[in-house]
Structure formats: structure tokens, C-alpha cells
Design a protein that fits this description.
Layout (H helix, E strand, L loop, with lengths): L3 E6 L7 H14 L4 E6 L1 H4 L9 H14 L7 E3 L5 H10 L4 H4 L3 H7 L13 H15 L5 E2 L6 H18 L8 E2 L33 H9 L16 H12 L3 H13 L4 H28 L1 H30 L5
Parallel strand pairs: 1-2, 2-3, 4-5
Helix pairs in contact: 3-12, 4-7, 4-13, 7-8, 9-12, 10-12
Bound molecules: tryptophan (TRP).
Length: about 325
């Protein structure tokens, strides 16, 4: 029996190489070995102020992006097409410790007034309750493994606590306690400022789109900062060079990576060679991804139908769990 993997991602705009190499590529690879469930979590996207006119489009865009880079349609669902997540989330509210949820650092980070102009920032109850819904996302499929970054460890801990309390109260080892799957994924930095992570919030220069056009990618790599001027140990590679090598390797160009690394060690690496090779590798990937995406978008109606179908099939699994949970907790089943 294959073990079950679950992960989810919020629908927010475009996908960059930090997202891809850091997480999504791993999702694609895990499909070989595991029974995978990957969710586009639109209920989670409502927890911060958002645009009601854009959310549905963002969810579909993310679906097309995920499909274009190799996530299989049958493993994908949209959370609001499986509303049982929310029902289980409510039940879990009663098994989640208030004191514990209060300690979640992601909530503290997202709710704090980071600048004075944010003084009147609206903080919703949903944002506070988010980790409980996340526990429902995971446990509703009885997932064994959850591939996420270290920043989610605390939420996984809470998920296990909820599962244990539930099991205790119903007197049965009903839920398996899920584990985080920490895969070594490359950390991609901003080409314009390699002291920080690649991210959209920092501005256009700081992220490279997975679906980027050749010219733009070449330009971004050509102007990538290689010397950040921070003091370095002797022989220590600058963060900018590390980032270019990381991208080149992540893009799968092992032999060129090895050759250029050797030049670096010999002290005769030409930065322009490294940049050309890195740009070539990314352009090659992006051209494929763009082409694939265009094909999918050309069959928009059919693809959307497929995702609605896969969500429905996945929903059947969720409904089964919910039915058993309602039985165990004294609620009514229809
Ligand atoms: N909280 C995750 C994040 O911020 C997204 C998420 C929601 C998730 N539900 C999940 C991740 C369930 C893994 C499993 O990135």
C-alpha cells in the first residue's frame, strides 16, 4: 500500500523559481512514490484582506500553473470544491487548544503591525483559526506525510495534537499522526539582492517567473548581482554566485555545473559563462513550461472540467472520513 502525501498551496499570483525549486518540483517528484493529494486552498486565501473579484481566477491560474509544471490532474483539487474541509475544521476547533493556537508564529507574523501605516490592519478570526483548518486539510485524507517548509513545523505539531486529542476523546486510534516530509530543496535567492529570498513581495526585480519570456529571463540573469560587497571569508563564494550555481544545478545541468565549478576552484571562472549557462538552463525550462501552459489554456474548458472531476473524486475520500468522524463524535449523519 502506498503511503499518502498531502500538501496545499494558496492561490496568489504567479509562480517563480523559488516556489518551483523550493516546493512544487518536489510535489511533482513525489507523485512517483506516493498517493498524492495537492490542494489549491482558496478558503485559506480568504483569511487576509483579498479581492473577491480575483480569487476564483487566481485559483484557476494556479491550477494551470501546477499542471504545466507536471502536477497530475488526478492529484489536484480546489479546496472549496471539497467543503468537508471546513466542516471538519469546525469540529477540530473543539479539539484545538486556544492557548496553543495563540502561540502560532505565522499568525503573529501575519497579524502584527509591521509598519505604522498598517495601524488599522484588519485581523480576521479566520486568520487566527487558519492552522485548525490546515489540520483538517491534512487529516481528512489521513495523510502520512506532508511536504512543507520548516516554517510549517508548528502547524504540523498542532495537527498532531488535534489528532491525539481527538483519538483520546473517542477512545480509538482513528487518525494517524502525520509527519512533515522535509526534502532537501534548494533555497533560491533574489537575483537583484542575493541576501534575501526570491519573493514577489520585494518587487519585480526580485523574482524570475517560471513562465517568463526568454528575453526577460536573460536580462534578469545578466544583471544578477554577483558581488554583494559583504565581508567574506577567504575562498568563500559570494551569495550571488552561490545562487547562480544553485539555479544551474536545480535546472538539471549537472555536467556544465561541474565544469564551471571546477573553473571557479581554479580561479578562472568567467562570470559571463556562468550567467549564460544559467540563463540557457532556465530559458529552456521556461520555454517548455510556457508551451505546456499555452496548450492547457487552449483547452481551458476541458481542463477545468477535469479538475472539477478530480475534486469530486477526492471529495469522496473526504466525505468518508467526515462520515466516520460524525459517527465517532455523536453528530448526525444523513
Ligand atoms: N499553511 C500553508 C502555507 O502557508 C498552506 C497550507 C494550507 C498547507 N493547508 C495546508 C500546507 C495543508 C500543507 C498542508 O504555506
Amino acid at each position: 500500500m502506498k503511503k499518502t502525501v498531502l500538501s496545499c498551496i494558496q492561490p496568489t499570483g504567479e509562480m517563480h523559481y523559488g516556489n518551483y525549486f523550493g516546493a512544487v518540483k518536489n510535489w511533482v517528484d513525489l507523485q512517483e512514490q506516493y498517493d498524492c493529494f495537492y490542494g489549491v486552498v482558496d478558503y485559506h486565501a480568504m483569511t487576509m484582506p483579498y479581492n473577491t473579484k480575483k480569487l476564483r481566477q487566481d485559483s484557476w491560474d494556479l491550477i494551470f500553473n501546477l499542471l504545466a509544471v507536471g502536477v497530475k490532474a488526478e492529484n489536484l483539487f480546489i479546496q472549496s470544491l471539497v467543503p468537508e474541509h471546513v466542516e471538519l475544521g469546525w469540529i477540530f476547533n473543539n479539539f484545538a487548544s486556544y492557548g496553543r493556537v495563540q502561540k502560532m508564529t505565522q499568525f503573529k507574523d501575519k497579524s502584527k503591525d509591521s509598519s505604522s501605516k498598517n495601524k488599522d490592519k484588519f485581523i480576521s478570526v479566520g486568520l487566527f483559526d487558519y492552522p485548525v483548518l490546515q489540520a483538517a486539510d491534512i487529516l481528512i485524507y489521513r495523510a502520512d506525510f506532508v511536504p512543507v517548509g520548516k516554517d510549517q513545523d508548528q502547524h504540523l505539531e498542532l495537527t498532531r495534537e488535534i489528532a491525539s486529542r481527538f483519538n483520546n476523546q473517542v477512545g480509538k486510534e482513528y487518525f494517524v499522526l502525520p509527519e512533515t516530509l522535509h526534502t532537501e530543496t534548494p533555497k533560491i535567492l533574489s537575483p537583484a539582492d542575493p541576501t534575501r529570498k526570491m519573493s514577489k513581495s520585494a518587487g519585480e526585480k526580485h523574482w524570475i517567473s517560471v513562465f517568463g519570456e526568454e528575453n526577460r529571463i536573460r536580462k534578469q540573469i545578466r544583471s544578477a548581482v554577483t558581488d554583494t560587497g559583504e565581508p567574506k571569508e577567504e575562498n568563500e563564494m559570494s551569495a550571488g554566485l552561490v545562487n547562480l550555481f544553485t539555479l544551474l544545478k536545480a535546472a538539471g545541468n549537472d555536467s556544465i555545473h561541474a565544469a564551471l565549478m571546477q573553473s571557479y576552484k581554479n580561479g578562472d571562472l568567467r562570470y559571463s559563462d556562468l550567467k549564460d549557462a544559467t540563463a540557457d538552463a532556465l530559458v529552456n525550462l521556461s520555454n517548455n513550461f510556457r508551451e505546456k501552459r499555452a496548450e492547457l489554456v487552449a483547452n481551458k474548458k476541458e481542463i477545468k472540467g477535469q479538475i472539477k472531476q478530480s475534486s469530486k473524486a477526492i471529495r469522496a475520500r473526504a466525505q468518508q472520513t467526515l462520515k466516520e468522524v460524525k459517527e465517532l463524535t455523536g453528530l448526525m449523519n444523513v
